[in-house]
Each structure stands twice: as C-alpha cells, then as structure tokens.
Amino acid sequence: MRHLAPLQGALEAYCRRSLHDPNSLRDVLQSAIANAYRDFHLYVEGTNFRAWIFRYTHLEMLNCNRKFARTRHEELPADLSVEDVWQLALDEPLFKVLLDDPDAVLDQCGAALAQAVREMASLERAVLLLQAIGEFKYREIAEILQVPIGTVMSTLARSRVRLRQRLVQCGEELGLLRPGQTRGEP
Amino acid sequence: MNCNEARHHWNLYHDSEGDAELHFQISEHLAGCADCAEWFSQQSRLESILAEKLNSQPPTPELWNEVLTRTGLVQPAAARRWLWFAGVAACAAVIVVAVLLNWNPSPPPPSPDLAKLTAARHERLVAGEEIPQFESRSDLEVEGYLRKRVSFPVRCPPRKDAGFAVQGAGVCQLAEQPAAYLSGRVDDAPVSIFVLPRDSLAAFPHQRDALRKEKTHRCREGQYAMVLGVIDRNAVLVIGQTDPERLEKVLSAYGTYPDHH
User: Fold this and answer.
1) Which of A141, A165, B190, B207 holds its CA 20 to 30 A away from the CA of A107?
2) Distance from B67 to chain A by nearest Cα, in Å?
3) How many other CB atoms are found less than 10 A from the CB of residue B92?
4) How far is A72 from chain B, CA to nearest CA, in Å?
C-alpha cells in the first residue's frame, strides 16, 4: 500500500487515456492490482516498483482493449525515421504559430488531444503516456513494454509529432491558427 | 553540429537521454544559434504543457477505495466507519447499562458465522436466485476468471480428481471479507466451494477456533453439510447437500494438485 499510494493518480490517468472503453477503468485497475499483489513475492524491495506496477497495468489495459475491439486491426503505420517526422513538423507554417502561443490552442483542444491519444497505435500511445504521465526514462519504458530502446526513441518522436499535427489541425479548424499569424494576434 | 542535427536530437535533449557528449554538443550549438535556442525552448514548453494536460486529473478516491477493497488490500470504508460508530455506540451502551443495572454485563453480539453465510449463498445459487458472475464448465477458464478478480490464489479442482464438475464462479463478500466461490455439482448434488484468504478467518472466530483443533472441520447448517480446511494461504469451504465424505474428497483435491494441471 505504501508503494502504491503515490502512484494512484498516474496509474489512473494512464488507464483513462489508454482505454478504448472508459467503463472498464475500474476492472482494469482491479485486475492489475490483484495480479501485482498476487505476484508481490516476486518483487524485490528497493527495485523499481513504479515500473513493476505500470507493467501489470499496461498488460491489463492491453487485454481490455483487445477484448473491446477484437475485430479492429490496430497496426503501427509504416516506420518513419526520426528525421522525416521532425522535418514534416518543421515544414508546417501553422506549427510555428502553435509554438509561438500554445496555450490558446491547448485550452480549446483538450477533447481533440484526448481523441488523438486514443486513436494512436497502441505502442505509440503507451510510449507517449509512459513518458508524459509516468515520467519514465527510455530504458524503463523499454522494460515495461518489452521492446528495444531504439523503438522507444523512434516511437516517442513519432507520437509527439502526431500529437502536434492534431493540435495544428484542431487549431486551424477552430480558427485559432492562421499562416503568418504573429504572437498574440487574434 | 548544424541546426538540423541539433533539432534532430531535440527529443533526447529534452528528455535528458543520450550521452553527455551529445548534450554538450547541442548546448554548444544552442549557445551560438539564437533560432535553435528559441526553437528548443518553444518545443520544450509545448511538451511540458502537453504532459501537464495529459496528466491533469487527480486520482479519484472513490474509485481507488473500491479497487483496493475489492482486491482485499483495505477494509471497506463503510465498514471502517461502521466499526468506529459501532465501537462508540457499544461503549456508550455498556456505560449506560452498567450505570442503570449496577454493572450487569450483557453477552457480546454474535460474531459472523461462516457456515451460515456460505449456506445462505449456496442456497441462493442452487435455487437460481443468484447466477454465478462467470459461467463455464472449464476449470481452467474459471481459474483464469477468478485470478483476475481476487488478490489471493484460487484454484478449481479438475473433475477427474473428485468428481466436482464446475459450472460457474464469482466473487463476493462474506462478513465484509473478500471471497471467491466456485459453483458446480458432484454427481447430481449441487456443491459450492468458497475460498477466502486465510487471514479472513479472524472474522469468523468459531471456524478459526475449530481449525485450531482439527485440520478439517466438518459441520452442518440446515440441510447442508460442509467441510472447511486451510490450504496454503486460503481457507477453503466445500458445501452441499451430500455425503460429507464426498465434500472432503473435493477439499482434498483442491489442495493436492499443482497450479498448472
């Protein structure tokens, strides 16, 4: 319990942002905690409990999403190099406007942001959220997701670009971003 | 390092990843390139705001209270409050009674009886008034279902061992203690198996004391026979309207096969 209490907010936020079916939040957390408690004898005191409990939560969340969308074929898009994705963002004039004043867009695009995260491929979403919410290092994320650290790096870069692109799109749709717009200009 | 190279490594720089040499080179570039310095700063600011937005919701106490209660890690809040009020009320009542009757202590309230509680639930299952939360005739599926819902290990004896044909399973609370149950038949007789963490026996003094005296405790509740034993970290109770020998065989089977049969 003393290990778990400080992590409740992050675990809940991770599940809320990841689950396709929001009604499953309670069941996923319950199963994850029950499984972790069952295997607690395998946990070595003094090692990384945060990563340990997040791994259980991540696996439960994956199971739940798989059950919810058995027929949905979720696949990572074709692999892009890190250079390509950043170049793509840099070429967007609207993105520069977003960078100048992100608060205006983020204040009004919360729903679009949440949807963009939910629509990401599961690995992209997991890497992004483990970094943003769990504040894990790349090595820890690699351990939690059982993927190479290079995959974590490229996937994180890609997911960040996707999120920025969605924000630009939302800002443009709401008339908050226009090419050539300067800071503070309505 | 040129601007493209520096910006290409923004993720590593922002996340304090990568080697010290790379960070040094980027820092050197930023010191001499105002455009990149501003770009890095803006990217990092946007990323910080995004992380804050993604993590903006505080934990929900009600949700966690329920999750931790269901997994058996904490006692239900309602029970804690009830215990507190009950304690205060009981103390007050004792004082009042002692004063009025010049100390005439009354017997303590009856403690929960595991036999009564399990018999009542078994009867509801048999009568169809309660449907198992998970219905399956596969012992492996039932085990898989329960493992995800309770924090203590639960098994389902294979039919070949003791003739227990499982039909369903679920989780419940018995005197506010987390429990799992398996519902099935031995030949034609409905039989249920209730499984609780061994520590839960503290809530049932009668059964706890009985198990201190004998390894397997047999008793009857109304029309039902039951056998109770401690197996590993669990208290296991088998109940049914059948010969206690057959129930004991199921109890023995529960504890004598490996987890991955």
Assistant:
1) A141
2) 5
3) 10
4) 24
pLDDT tens sequence across A53-64: 999 999 999 888
- Point out the residue among B45, B70, B72 whose CB comes nearest to the CB of A102: B45
B 12-41 near A (Cβ less than 8 A) = 12, 15, 17, 39
Half-sphere exposure of B14 (CA within 13 A, CB side): 25
Task: ipTM value, please give it.
Answer: 0.83
Ranges of each domain in chain A: 5-68, 82-173
Non-local (6+) Cβ contacts of B23 within 8 A are B13, B16
Six-digit token string for B163: 């003739």
Topology annotation, domain A82-173? Arc Repressor Mutant, subunit A (1.10.10)
Amino acid identity for residue A178 in this structure: R
Q: Does A142 touch chain B (CB under 8 A)?
A: no
DSSP state, residue A6: G
Provide the whole-model pTM: 0.56
Q: How far is A132 from chain B (nearest CA, A)?
A: 5
Number of Cβ pairs < 8 A linking chain A and chain B: 107
